[in-house]
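Hi V.,

You were right to ask for the full record rather than a summary. Here it is.
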Amino acid sequence: MKLNTTSLLLKIIRYKIHHFIFWFLYFVLWIFLYEPAVGFNKAFENALIVVILHGSAAYFNNYYLVPVFLRQRQYFLYFVSVFLTISFICFIHIIFLLWADTIDDTEKYSLWSVEFFINDSISISYTLAITMTLMFFKQWFEKERLTDKLEKLNIETELKFLKSQINPHFLFNSLNSVYALTLTKSDKAPEVVLKLSDILRYILYDSGEKVVGLKKELEYVENYLELEKIRHGNRLQTKMEIIGETSGKEIAPMIFLPFIENSFKHGINSNIGNSFVNIHFEINDDNLTFKIENNKPTHKLSETPNYQGGIGINNVKKRLNLLYPGKHTLNIDEEGETFVVKLKIEWN
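Predicted structure:
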């Protein structure tokens, strides 16, 4: 409903329809006010005169006096200018009424009275106030729309920046693995290259989208796990469990990878003979729960040579806040000798 209303307002403003609507309704109002006293024909003429004069005053105020004096905070000059404008319009109104002969002769003498001037000034002032209010509302609406567009642009720019950090980070780690296997002339190197090729294809052609199918994202995770199994062999025990239906569900790409990468960095090292990484997905109609656990390393990861820090985890936290604000919970805990990450995302 909000989207339809905004779209309608944008079309009205774009084609200046609001000007026509306002002055048409204003014209009808004055016909309604004049008709009981002078009849429809003269009411029509009088209303036309009022709309022409009041409209001239309104546009002169909105497009000249406001930007030249009011926005420059020259308040005294602005109010003097408004007073002179209203006085001039009142005088022209009297001339029009006498020329058009749309009032009775007995009422023509009252046109030059202070009472007529005050009443006419008040009606013009109301018109200026209403049109100024509408103008400020229109400017506020356009400013809010521009702010929303800039916020969306900033969010998209930040997301692209974060993803550009994640992808090279993953590529760097994978290429190191391939390099290590080639040094030992391992027969697993071709298989690793093939798995890496599938993963890079996903990154290049699918991860640029705002959302991807959950099934495809989980296939990507499985490929990554297969790559890690090949790398680590018998030193690694992995288990991936998926409970629930993946079809018809969509999720932002590359959300789970940083946590999985982090688990392998923390849980797998040369000092651990039997390492494990267990991954669990539970999917239902309302949300998705992702849980990953791994054993702790025998020494602090920060003591590892060339350790680069938790770039991926920090980035995915920022992405979650941008993509699922108020619709996700993330807990990273240590349970005994195990690291546990629990992520719950509500479907948008």
